[in-house]
Amino acid sequence: MGAQLRVYKRRIQAVTATKKITKAMEMIAASRIVKAQRKVAASMPYATELTRAVTAVATGSNTNHPLTTEAESPARAAVLLLTSDRGLAGGYSSNAIKAAEKLRERLAAEGKEVDTYIVGRKGVAYYGFRERKVSESWTGFTDSPEYSDAKKIAEPLIASIQKDTAEGGVDELHIVFTEFVSMMTQNAVDGRMLPLSLDQVAEEDTKKDEILPLFDFEPSAEDVLDALLPRYVESRIYNALLQAAASEHAARRRAMKSATDNAGDLIKSLSRLANAARQAEITQEISEIVGGAGALADASAGSDK
């Protein structure tokens, strides 16, 4: 009985140590969510105005730019998938991967080949385990991305859409990331970044005639597109990275809170079992003492006779 009590005590100590770790991780994730939200809010004014400018050029000119013109028969698409570098975040990465798989199936059903680009070790590990081809991948910054990271990611994607498909280029550019809605809600979403279309890039419900008077194009609309569209892609990717980072921290906070609560429940359960084992041990010891005292009393009575 004493051995069983020692087992319960060791398990309680181990679970208590785990609870301290998960509680600390929960608090760290909660503090990082606030920072990530501030970054998202800070990036929105630039992204909104850049979107308006790019939309104005794309819709207010007759320029057939490769980044704004739909291919007659699109045959190839690039998909950028944003996952996390670290685990312990619940279903954060798996939900994004599932959304990317659905997008891939939809594009394949439309007769398009898919080139996959991945951010985050979880996505890289998923595709690597299944021996799937990945065009390019980036890791090491998912929990705290910088604009330089978005620029680094955008370069090969822009280069691929500027190439002809016969030379390994793509006709479309899609992105899959986790949208931060609130502390409790994060949704894995997909969207097409290029070719540009007004209904997909406008952040506000604006009409064409409301945008056009704001801009004059110098030296030409095509030159403006050459300059603005790479910045547009970078800003879209950067905003997605920031939202994904906030979503990752929120998912990790929720997962760690659940783990902490479960550890607390397990400690209570083990404590009850340990108390029951201790009570049984005490009862057995009392029974042995009473039995021994009775035996001595009987022995004394027998000797007196």
Describe the overall structure:
- This protein is of the alpha/beta class and 305 residues long.
- It is built from seven helices and five strands, in the order H-E-H-E-H-E-H-E-E-H-H-H.
- The protein has helices at residues 2-59, 92-109, 121-129, 147-162, 198-201, 208-211, 221-304; strands spanning 76-82, 113-119, 136-138, 172-180, 186-194.
- A five-stranded mixed β-sheet has the order 3-2-1-4-5, with helices on both faces.
- The chain starts with a helix and ends with a helix.
- Mean pLDDT is 84; it is low at 200-213.
Count of helix runs: 7
Q: Order of strands across the biggest sheet? A: 3-2-1-4-5
General shape: elongated
Biggest sheet character: 5 strands, mixed
The percent range for helix content is 55-70%
Radius of gyration: 31 Å
Mean pLDDT: 84
Structural class, please? alpha/beta
Beta content comes to: 5-15%
Order of SSEs, N→C? Answer: HEHEHEHEEHHH
Low-confidence stretches: 200-213
- End-to-end separation in angstroms reads 39 Å
Q: How many beta-strand runs?
A: 5
